[in-house]
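ESCALATION

Customer reports they have been waiting on this structure for their group meeting. Please prioritize. Original submission:
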Amino acid sequence: MNFLANIFDRLAATPDRKIIQELRPDRNVAITAGEMLGRIDTARAFLRSAGLCKGDRLALLAANGIAWAALDLAAMAEGIVVVPLYTRQAPPELVAMMQDCQPKLICCGDAALRDAIAVSWPHAPRTALVEEIFMIGAGSAPGSAAQASREVALTPDDPITIIYTSGTSGEAKGVVLTARNVTHMLSCTTVRLDLLMNASASADSETAFHYLPFCFAASWILLLSCLSRRSVLHLSTDLTRLADDLRATAPDYCLNVPTLLERMCSAIEAQIASRGGLTYKIFTNAKAAYLQRADGSAADGVLWVTLGRMLIFPAIRKKIGPNLKALICGSAPLNKETQLFFMMLGIPVLQAYGLTETTAICTLDVPGKVEPGTVGSAIPGLEMRLGEQGEILVRGPNVFGGYWNRPEETAKALANGWFHTGDQGEQTAAGNWRIVGRLKSLVILNSGHNIAPEPLEESILRALPGAQQAVVFGNGRSYLSAVITGNVPHNIAEAKIAELNAALPHYRQIRAFHMENQPLTIESGLLTANGKLRRDAIAARFHNEIEAMYHRNPQ
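Update from on-call: job pushed to the front of the queue and completed.
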């Protein structure tokens, strides 16, 4: 049975079970399994009336919500290929991707976005507002809708989605994923979630909290995983209310990006520092002792850690989420110290690594067997090995078959039967993988030294509270430099970078830096849709500043 038929069977088996709840500032809106099937049937009827057939593309540009999920499921059930796009991207970027895949229908979440697309693409295909699709069939009978929605027109090799890559170093490419890819991936996520939830206990339901856009592969896989299980998925629709929503929902798990977890750490530490006194002393000593012991230091801090666990950590854990069994983290490397911070509080952080081309996931931490600083072991059925320059190569049933209309790019990515991830990695003795850097961002000094910039950038951000981003440069140069954004006084940045340099070999030292008050943003074109650095664009934007750093300090 493919993943979609499985989801429909589960929804039909428990029609009165709540499956998704939107957390809105004014009120919460929930939907049951039976009501979802009714929404799906309404959307399928609309798509048929709009003339869409199997293999046609549908562009979906809307915020997370019940309607997004229903329309996505409806289109896939009809054999229509869904192209989910990130609404925060500039309209010209969205239009470029749509012109590449040529959708027959564009579904927008709001009129303003629809109108902006029309300006950039005067001859765009038919456009519909998502809310209007569901208003058309609001009065349909739930029973007949549920039965009709269980019909699935998919074979294992049918394409079901085209997800555009973030384009960190060039034009975004459309990754084509099939029903087979997703069916295998959901079998893997289910096994890991069963371990996390102790499935043998046969819990009636589980609670998940989510805020990341469904247009990203990992976020979409979480949505489908929850629909494949007895889960209630709570969707945060207001990022300014994340902490309150997380606390109120009291979930068993949620998917995160490193940035949020790092901000949570900073906020917790700042709050405790403001209290001062014995609480601050116990916390700082307990943290120092815990981190030293985690790194294998012989330092004796058992007393401080014990006091922290007795007097402070439970209260912090309760404020974050009293029922949390794990924070799941992916999309970018997570600082090891951040992972250990939450582990110290008694909240496991499970890491995942993957790319859109691997249906979001290559590795997943096994609950109870986490090795801090790594991203877990390969999922079942996937082979992983290292190629030239330590590049991670993978093959398996979750690996895509190619990019949309890009045969040359596809052949290059899948050379010799292996997908070339472009990431550098290494495997630990325990079988877990560690991500070292990205080949395309590799800095090669004119001395011949190859340097992955990501670890250095993470070190700079850890050393400089108030810094938001750090970008290391030096390709073809004699030494490394960095552009750092955020509100950090120059003299403090200089002192902290000097401290970092003292522990580094000469070729990895940062010899010059430029401070920039304004952060890099998606809107400025300097970050990808999921917040990754667009290094080429950043280098172009700060060309003069970078040149000035090397002219001031030639070596």
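Sent to customer with the following note: The longest strand covers residues 419-427.
Escalation resolved.
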